[in-house]
């Protein structure tokens, strides 16, 4: 990340996510993981979920702030809180989580 900008283009990120999601997973493990993800999503505020989806779409903090009429500092706060709640170490992990949780699809 450089100054709140995405490290990879949205197109490259989408391609990586599509490949990741296409990998088969054991049904029991997927069910258990889906249940865990659902609980984590329930712990997010509505605004944190909204920001998470926008991060997953490849928007910068500034772009998210403009779209939501909030400051980029407030966006950063929402991103950081989502990262803590989801135990994500960086924005890339937030993106993966959002797609795994089916908060959006690669073609959105």
What does this structure look like?
With 108 residues, this protein is mostly helical. 69% of the residues lie in helices and 0% in strands. Helix 3 crosses helix 6 (91-100) and helix 4 packs across helix 5. The protein is globular and about 40 Å long. It starts with 9 loop residues before the first helix and ends in an 8-residue tail after the last helix.
At a glance:
By secondary structure, this protein is an all-alpha fold.
Cα-based radius of gyration, to the nearest Å: 14 Å
Poorly predicted regions: none
Order of helices and strands: HHHHHH
**Based on CA inertia axes, which overall geometry fits?**
globular
Could you please say which CATH topology of the domain at 50-108 applies here?
Arc Repressor Mutant, subunit A
CATH architecture of the domain at 50-108: Orthogonal Bundle
Individual helix count: 6
Strand fraction equals: under 5%
Let me know the number of strands.
0
Q: Quick one: biggest sheet?
A: none
User: From the helix content, strand content and strand pairing, which structural class follows?
Assistant: mainly alpha
What percent of residues adopt helix (DSSP H or I)?
A: 55-70%
Task: Write the CATH homologous superfamily of the domain at 50-108.
Answer: Winged helix-like DNA-binding domain superfamily/Winged helix DNA-binding domain
Mean pLDDT across residues: 83
Distance between the termini: 22 Å
Return the CATH class of the domain at 50-108: Mainly Alpha
């Amino acid at each position: 990340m450089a100054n709140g900008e995405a490290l990879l283009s949205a197109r490259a990120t989408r391609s990586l996510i599509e490949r990741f999601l296409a990998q088969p997973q054991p049904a029991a493990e997927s069910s258990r993981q889906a249940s865990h993800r659902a609980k984590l999503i329930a712990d997010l505020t509505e605004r944190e979920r909204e920001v998470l989806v926008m991060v997953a779409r490849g928007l910068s903090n500034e772009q998210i702030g403009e779209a939501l009429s909030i400051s980029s500092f407030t966006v950063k706060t929402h991103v950081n809180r989502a990262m803590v709640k989801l135990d994500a170490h960086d924005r890339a992990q937030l993106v993966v989580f959002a797609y795994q949780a089916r908060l959006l699809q690669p073609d959105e």
